[in-house]
Amino acid sequence: MTKEYVEQLFLQEKPVLALLAIWSFQKTYASVITKEINSTFAHTTKILSKMEEHGLVRFSVDGRVKYVELTDHGYKVVDALKNLIIALEGESPDSEEEKKGDEATAQDTESSENEKKLTLEHISRLHEQIVTTYDNLFNKNSEPQEMKMKIGPFSRDIQLLLNSIEENEDLIDDEGLDKLNEIQNIFDLVMKQ
Question: Is the whole-model pTM more than 0.85?
Fold first, then answer.
């Protein structure tokens, strides 16, 4: 790495936070890092790409999910950054490690709750859109082809929700599951006409 690049990458807040977030989660994905560092997805992927070029992180694909994790070199850099932060703040390494462990646990719980809330909100919005669209079409005695044209585009959203819930069943409660089943039933009914 050139000196200029090192200064540009690690003397900026977002790349340092991204590296520390990956360290705390061990194996995660870009959207989680984006939320953690309060950045845009495009900026986060650019940072992660640069880190991959320099051997700090590696990507792996499991099904449809692309994970990011630290390499051995990445762990060494994180250790150096943690020591730098500790030195600058004047704290002992032990108290910093304990704080990070507590923060990581709290962040995991908070992140999980936020993800569940977002999933349930997405299900509610999608449910309202599909049910309203279907009821309007049904009340107007619309032709099956028109119904397919109006309801069909929701298939991608439905599938994305099903995939995310399949990966993590804790993202949905009974009410959300009922709404998702109703959405799926309406979609199947319309598309099989």
Answer: no
